[in-house]
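Why run this: before we spend reagent on co-expression, it is cheaper to look at a predicted model of the complex and decide which construct boundaries make sense. The entries below are exactly what would go into the expression plan.
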Amino acid sequence: MNLQSIIYPIISLGGLGLVFGAGLAYASQKFAVEIDPRALAIRDALPGANCGGCGLPGCDSFAKAVAEGKSPVDGCPVGGPDCAKALAEIMGVEVDERARKVAKVICNGDKEKCRDKFDYHGINDCVAASMVGGGGDKACNYSCLGFGTCVKACQFDAIEIIEGRIARIIPEKCTACGKCIEVCPKDVIDMVPYDQTVVITCNNKETGKVVRKKCEVACIACQICVKACPFDAIDFKNNLAFIDYDKCTQCFVCVEKCPTGAIEGDLEKRKKAVIDENTCVGCTICKKHCPVEAIEGELKGKHKILADKCIGCGACEAKCPKKSITMN
Amino acid sequence: MSVSSLFIILVSAILVNNFILSRFLGICPFLGVSKQVETAFGMGMAVTFVMALASIITYLAQILILEELNIQYMQTIVFILVIASLVQFVEMVIQKSSPTLYQSLGVFLPLITTNCAVLGLTLINISQEYNLIETIVHAIGAALGFTLAIVLFAAIRERLELSHVPKAFKGFPIALITASLMSLAFLGFAGLV
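The model came back. Tokens follow.
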């Protein structure tokens, strides 16, 4: 066997590679572009989904914008607080801890509860379905159609279609990128704080008389919740109640009062106040602030919570000067 | 060798054997970077630069190394190595000199590396047994032909954006039809040389 036929190719190709490599190394020094090292570090700290949730095209441009100070460090909705913290560290600034938000389908009108307008046998897509018969096959024009346009748009597998053909968002997986809100033809997805369990799950803006015929679980604009809320956290607009999440203490009063069950809330998650008798000095401040008179006790005496009356709003906990009230 | 034969090589590379529209090489950037005349022109210039340099270097590599050592079968891999290095170099230069162009070319710039138009040109140079000057002229002709085709195409696509195209044809379908019509038109140059 001819050894040359092996050695020549190796030497020639290796030599060429070496020459070009050296040339490129020199060129990369000469034509080096100065990139902000912080931008590179930020890029590494980002989730890298390139979802565009920040409003910029891709993670690279967001990293650049943050490094230049044009975008806030907590601008990435996907990364959440952890990412914001990492970015703040790189940039050497502080973040104001913003509550994590998740998307929420504000409709409970599944096939059983919401009346059908007609049978739809078209393309399996909300946008297509919403174009037929004046807004889809459901009687309620504001409802979730449940054909999964949002499911297809979600890059994080956080949306599923449950029985009764309605979309549900899994809060643990949701990153609040806003893609589903963008594609939903019915505008029936909203952003709510992650730990908010009391949510008004109706989007219908018609009057109670009209909506009552269409759906069993709709907001019928009775305003009972508005009056019942001890904290003025419910507002009323366009025949629909809205919760101000900053004021809401998740006391579940509205959930109990709503005649149609249009306000969602897991009552089992309701907290109860507990007074630590060792530290209670009997100042009566908590008693004065309780909206439902669930605290009894005399001045200078130990106070007690009436568990069946307590709505778990936490108003007493916030006011107690001795910090002897805990919620659990 | 006379000036007229060089001229014939040039014209035939630009029009008659246009790399995109007659030889169907380099279709990827042709479709990818042809949405705006400006970026299309930038791409054309980048390809021109790479083609001209690659032709010279591959010609020298062929004569001085491959034929000398009688290892012509290494042609493809050596040429690819040359082209890849050159593309890297061009990328650095563009990134330094024109960040805007660098961004708009995007992924298609590194893709010149595997652009069959460049490799095809260098291989045709060798198979046609051109000498160095003819190689350079042919390379410039091919690159100008590439630029001409891509810029013309981009100009048409810019107008297509604004015109009423049936929904089913919007985007790539109409672009492909346009490309085929352009290719047909360039067939008219067939008898020129």
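Chain A has twelve helices and twelve strands. Residues 273-327 of chain A form a domain with the Alpha-Beta Plaits fold (CATH 3.30.70.20). Bring this page to Monday's planning discussion.
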